[in-house]
C-alpha cells in the first residue's frame, strides 16, 4: 500500500491514478488525518502531494513527523519537496522566478528513481507549477537534477530513500513522469500487487453496502457511461433497493430516451422510472442566457424531480450519481484551495444546499477510461461503454444564448448527422467527444437563387485522455466539407457550419 498525503493540489488524484496503473493499491488522505492513516495502513511508501499553500506560511500544512521516523521511502512532489526540505533541515524561499508550464531538467547524478528511464547528463521535459522553491537542501541529500528556474529541481537521500522533485511527474505533460513514479512505487518502496478494476469493483460494492445499509437509493441516469456504470455497480451491491430515474429534461439528443429505457429496463432489469419533465425544464430556462445560471437552474430542477420521485418510492435516503474525479476537481474549491470554479457541473456544484438526500458517488475517484474499464468488468456492452461523454445539462450548454425548442430541434438534427458521418468514417473511437452546437447568431447565405438568413452550427471534436486537457481532432477537410454540406442541405434553419479548432486549455470542451 502507498499512502498519498494530500495538501490540496489540483492533481493529487493523478498521483493515485499513476499508482493504480502500477497495480498497487493507494489511498489519498488529507494531511490532517495523515498520522492516523499512516498508523492504520502501514504503507510501504509515502507520497507527498503538491499544494497551493506555502511552507513559509504560518500554519502551513505538513506531513506528520512520524512519516520520517519510520524508515519508509518518501517521495515529495512540488510542495511535497518543499515540505520535506523544510522539515528535514533545508531551506525554502519565495521564488522570484516562478515557473509554470513546460520546463526541462538536466540529470546531475544517477538515482534509483531513474532506473531504466533517465541518464546522467540527459535533458528531459517536465511540467512545473510553483512559486516557492528550495534554496538549501537538508543534510544527507544531494541534487540529482537541475532546471534553469530550480537549481534543486530534484533531490534525493538515497540512503534513507527520500526523493523529491519540484515538477509534477503525475501529469501527462511530464512524459517520463509515470516511469519515475513506477520506480518509486515498485523498486524503491517494493510495492507489489495486481490491484485493478476487479478489485475496485469488489471494494466499491463493500463500501456501497456499508454506506447505504438497508436504505433506498435513487440514481439519476443520463444515458452516459458514468451514470450507467454507477447504476449497474450499485445494483450489483444492493439489488432492488436501487431505483433508477431517467429524467427527460427536453435537452437530450435524438432517440436518447428510448435507448436508455431499453438498455436498463429490458436488458438489465433494473427498476427504472422515466420522467418526462421537458415542460418544467424548458419553462424554467426560458430567457436564461448565462451559462452558470443555466447549469444551476438545471441542477436544482434535477434535484426537485429526484426528490419527488424519491417520495413516490417511499423515501430514498440516498441519491446516486456517476460523478467522476475531473467533475469534482473542476467544480470544487478546496478550503484555502487552489481551484477556482471553472464550471458548476450539475452533478456536483449545482446541488442546492437544501437537498435532503445523501450522495452515493462510487466513481468519484476515477477517470473516464477507468470507468470504461470498470464498465467492461461489469459486463456492459462495448457500444455502451465506448460512448462519448454527454453532460448532465445536456443540449442546454450546447446552445449558447437563449434556449428555444426551435433551436434544440435544429441542434438535434445537426448533431445526429455529424455523429452519423463520424461513425460511418470509422472515427468514433478515435475521438473523445464530438458534438454540434448552435450559435445564437444568424448569418446571411445564398441557397438556390434566394438569400437566406439562418443559424450557424458549430462542430466540436476533441481527443483527450481524461477530459481535463484536450486537443481538437484533425479531421480532413473533405470530411468536414461533407458534414457541412449535409447539415446545410438537410437541416432547415442552418446555412453555415464552422469547426472549432481550440484546445483545452484555453477552451473548454463544451461551449458553456
Ligand atoms: P469541459 O467543457 O469542462 O468538460 O471541458 C469536460 C468534460 O466534462 C463534461 N461535462 C459535464 N459532465 N455534467 C457532466 O456530467 C456537467 O455539468 C458537465 N459539464 C461538462 C464534458 O462533456 C466533457 O466531457
UniProtKB/TrEMBL annotation:
Entry-linked InterPro entries: Class_I_gatase-like, GATASE, GMP_synth_C, GMP_synth_GATase, GMP_synthase, GMPS_ATP_PPase_dom, NAD/GMP_synthase, Rossmann-like_a/b/a_fold
Entry superkingdom: Bacteria
Residues annotated as catalytic: 78, 168, 170
Pathway membership: Purine metabolism; GMP biosynthesis; GMP from XMP (L-Gln route): step 1/1
Keyword ATP-binding: yes
Short name of one Pfam family: NAD_synthase
Chain ranges of the GMPS ATP-PPase domain: 195-387
SUPFAM superfamilies the record matches: Adenine nucleotide alpha hydrolases-like (SSF52402), Class I glutamine amidotransferase-like (SSF52317), GMP synthetase C-terminal dimerisation domain (SSF54810)
CDD domains on file: GATase1_GMP_Synthase, GMP_synthase_C
Gene Ontology molecular-function annotations: ATP binding; GMP synthase activity
Residues where ATP binds: 222-228
Reactions catalysed, as given in the entry: XMP + L-glutamine + ATP + H2O = GMP + L-glutamate + AMP + diphosphate + 2 H(+)
The entry's keywords: ATP-binding, Glutamine amidotransferase, GMP biosynthesis, Ligase, Nucleotide-binding, Purine biosynthesis
Entry-linked Gene3D superfamilies: 3.30.300.10, 3.40.50.880, HUPs
Gene Ontology terms: cellular component: cytosol
E.C. number(s) listed in UniProt: 6.3.5.2
Main EC class the enzyme belongs to: ligase
Matches recorded under PANTHER family: GMP SYNTHASE [GLUTAMINE-HYDROLYZING], GMP SYNTHASE-RELATED
Function, as annotated: Catalyzes the synthesis of GMP from XMP.
Self-association state and partner proteins as the record states: Homodimer.
Protein's name according to its UniProt entry: GMP synthase [glutamine-hydrolyzing]
Organism: Ancylobacter mangrovi
Lineage: Bacteria, Pseudomonadati, Pseudomonadota, Alphaproteobacteria, Hyphomicrobiales
Amino acid at each position: 500500500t502507498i499512502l498519498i498525503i494530500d495538501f490540496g493540489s489540483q492533481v493529487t488524484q493523478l498521483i493515485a491514478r499513476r499508482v493504480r496503473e502500477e497495480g498497487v493499491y493507494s489511498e489519498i488522505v488529507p494531511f490532517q488525518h495523515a498520522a492516523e492513516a499512516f498508523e492504520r495502513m502501514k504503507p510501504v511508501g509515502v507520497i507527498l502531494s503538491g499544494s497551493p499553500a506555502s511552507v513559509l506560511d504560518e500554519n502551513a500544512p505538513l506531513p506528520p513527523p512520524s512519516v520520517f521516523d519510520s524508515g519508509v521511502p518518501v517521495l515529495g512532489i512540488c510542495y511535497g519537496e518543499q515540505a520535506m526540505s523544510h522539515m528535514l533541515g533545508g531551506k525554502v524561499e519565495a521564488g522570484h522566478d516562478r515557473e509554470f508550464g513546460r520546463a526541462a531538467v538536466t540529470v546531475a547524478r544517477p538515482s534509483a528513481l531513474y532506473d531504466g528511464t533517465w541518464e546522467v547528463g540527459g535533458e528531459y521535459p517536465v511540467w512545473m507549477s510553483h512559486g516557492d522553491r528550495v534554496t538549501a537542501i537538508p543534510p544527507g541529500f544531494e541534487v540529482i537534477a537541475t532546471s534553469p528556474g530550480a537549481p534543486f529541481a530534484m533531490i534525493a537521500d538515497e540512503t534513507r530513500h527520500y526523493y523529491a522533485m519540484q515538477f509534477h511527474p503525475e501529469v501527462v505533460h511530464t512524459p517520463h513522469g509515470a516511469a519515475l513514479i513506477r520506480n518509486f512505487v515498485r523498486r524503491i518502496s517494493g510495492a507489489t500487487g495486481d490491484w485493478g478494476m476487479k478489485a475496485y469493483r469488489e471494494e466499491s460494492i463493500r463500501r456501497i453496502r456499508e454506506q447505504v445499509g438497508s436504505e433506498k437509493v435513487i440514481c439519476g441516469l443520463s444515458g452516459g457511461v458514468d451514470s450507467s456504470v454507477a447504476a449497474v455497480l450499485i445494483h450489483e451491491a444492493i439489488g432492488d433497493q436501487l431505483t433508477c430515474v431517467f429524467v427527460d429534461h427536453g435537452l437530450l439528443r435524438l432517440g436518447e430516451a428510448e435507448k436508455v429505457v431499453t438498455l436498463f429496463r429490458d436488458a438489465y432489469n433494473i427498476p427504472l422510472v422515466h420522467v418526462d419533465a421537458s415542460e418544467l425544464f424548458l419553462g424554467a430556462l426560458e430567457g436564461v442566457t448565462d451559462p452558470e445560471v443555466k447549469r444551476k437552474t438545471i441542477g436544482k430542477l434535477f434535484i426537485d424531480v429526484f426528490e419527488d420521485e424519491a417520495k413516490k418510492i417511499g423515501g430514498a435516503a440516498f441519491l446516486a450519481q456517476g460523478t467522476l474525479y475531473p467533475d469534482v476537481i473542476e467544480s470544487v474549491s478546496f478550503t484555502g484551495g487552489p481551484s477556482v470554479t471553472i464550471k458548476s457541473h450539475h452533478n456536483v456544484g449545482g446541488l442546492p444546499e437544501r437537498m435532503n438526500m445523501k450522495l452515493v458517488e462510487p466513481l468519484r475517484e476515477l477517470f473516464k477510461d477507468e470507468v470504461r474499464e470498470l464498465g467492461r468488468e461489469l459486463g456492459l456492452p462495448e457500444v455502451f461503454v465506448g460512448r462519448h461523454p454527454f453532460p448532465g445539462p445536456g443540449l442546454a450548454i450546447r446552445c449558447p444564448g437563449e434556449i428555444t425548442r426551435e433551436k434544440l430541434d435544429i441542434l438535434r438534427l445537426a448533431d445526429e448527422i455529424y455523429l452519423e458521418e463520424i461513425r460511418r468514417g470509422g472515427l468514433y473511437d478515435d475521438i473523445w467527444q464530438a458534438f454540434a452546437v448552435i450559435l445564437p447568431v444568424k448569418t446571411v447565405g445564398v441557397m438556390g437563387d434566394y438569400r437566406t438568413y439562418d443559424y450557424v452550427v458549430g462542430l466540436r471534436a476533441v481527443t483527450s485522455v481524461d477530459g481535463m486537457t484536450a486537443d481538437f481532432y484533425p479531421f480532413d477537410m473533405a470530411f468536414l466539407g461533407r458534414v457541412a454540406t449535409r447539415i446545410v442541405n438537410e437541416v432547415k434553419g442552418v446555412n453555415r457550419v464552422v469547426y472549432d479548432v481550440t484546445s483545452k486549455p484555453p477552451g473548454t470542451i463544451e461551449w458553456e
